[in-house]
Amino acid sequence: MVIHSPLVGRACKGIVKSAMRTSYSAINTYLQCPQRYKFQEVDRIRAPKGKEAIFGSLIHDTLHFMFERTPLFPTLDEVIAHFREHWPLREVFLQEEKNDPLKRAWTPEEEKAYFEDGVAMLKKFYEKNAPWNFAVVDLESRFEIVLADPKTGETHILAGIIDRIDKLSDETYEIIDYKTAKRMPSQDAINRDLQLSLYSLGLQNRWPHIKPEEIKLSLYFVKHGVKLSTQASAENTKKTQTHILKTIADIQDKIQGGKNFDPMPSILCNWCGYRPMCPAWKHLYKKQDPAIKNEADANGAINEYLGLKKNEDRLKKRMEELQAQIREYMEREGLTRVFGDEGYVSKRTQQRFEYDYQKIEALLSPLGKWQDILTADATKLRKILYEVPEDVRLVVEEARAVAKEYSVLTASLKKIKGPEDAATESPLPTEL
């Protein structure tokens, strides 16, 4: 079976099985927002890069330039000159504003501030990381990992690019990935970082003689001049493989079953190029269009519903009537969020599960946890799952089946500005 590029046919002893070719970036996109994954990987809709993404890419490109020339490494002035020569034209940012009316191009003052911030970051990095002091093995190192799923017999290919690989000694290596984000994660988050664990797998696949314990994994936060590191391990390697295979299985299930890739609205939406077409946002862009059938009626229902939300107990019956009207409109128009003058209404899919408690008892009894859920209470079981080993939790989750699926509407009284307000709106917060 072949379904777009993430799923590719793979022959195995005369049998063709469904397989997936994917990347860390795609897997991470799915975990952040399944709907964005569908736009990007399934529908193959190209979204223009935002200002922050362009800025980050240029920083990465400049650091690559800094280390690729050997033995005559570039001076700091040459590094800054490279950054300046490749600084994007203002038309790039004007195009982003054209694609999404809720975003606007940088003002000359903002563009100057970003450029100077980039120069400061590069100067700080150069001073602490003179290129001749490192034994760089490779830059932008491409890798592929073959992952065999023992449950399905499928073989998947996971591809990626490592920013930099250094050789620290005869037996140890360091994987370095550059980050231009303003926020730095905790050390615990670094220890559990999926990207670093995946890169460790990629290096081991490229050079099988390297053991996990011989790999140092680092994220270098260029803005702050700080490098956070952790150590690869066989245990983390196994957990990463399990996590990736489970995520791939979830994606395959949605694609092959024709299921929804539900959006997950978050602050990351501010930098998503798909927002004008996303079912969680597109109503905000089109609700002023008088040509859309029943649009005025729907907007009236949305605004009245959000107003009644303030008096929910007293007006519960009327709210249920409006919910039915809004739900019918959202399903007909393919929307998961609609926006009114007082806020917005969201529709999400919920599932209730039934568990095979006989199978779960055999798993939890040796751990002394079965007595806690003798009443076969799904709520108690979900709580206990946070306390058991990950491999046990995964098996427990496989012992469940969807008993009922339904949609619910939730309301927020937080007002969201529409495209007509973009001209007077302050710029969106940046996340480099």
3D shape: flat
Global Rg = 25 Å
Q: What gap, in angstroms, lies between the N and C termini?
A: 39 Å
Instruction: Extract low-pLDDT stretches.
Output: 1-5, 7-17, 422-432
Query: How would you state the average pLDDT, rounded?
Result: 81
Largest sheet: 7 strands, mixed
Helix content: 40-55%
Q: Could you spell the SSE succession in H and E letters?
A: EEHHHHHHEEEHHEEHHHHEEHHHE
Question: What percent of residues are in strands?
Answer: 15-25%
How many extended strands? 10
* Tally of separate helices: 15
Return the structural class: alpha+beta
What is the chains' assembly state?
single chain
In short:
With 432 residues, this protein is an alpha+beta fold. The chain is built from 15 helices and ten strands.
Q: What's the arrangement of secondary structure elements?
A:
Blueprint: E1 7-12, E2 15-23, H1 24-32, H2 34-42, H3 51-68, H4 76-85, H5 90-99, H6 108-128, E3 136-148, E4 155-167, E5 173-179, H7 187-191, H8 194-206, E6 215-221, E7 226-231, H9 234-257, H10 282-286, H11 295-308, H12 316-333, E8 337-340, E9 343-355, H13 357-364, H14 378-384, H15 390-398, E10 400-412
Organism: Candidatus Sungbacteria bacterium RIFCSPLOWO2_01_FULL_54_21
Keywords: Coiled coil
InterPro entries: PDDEXK-like_dom_sf, PDDEXK_AddAB-type, Restrct_endonuc-II-like
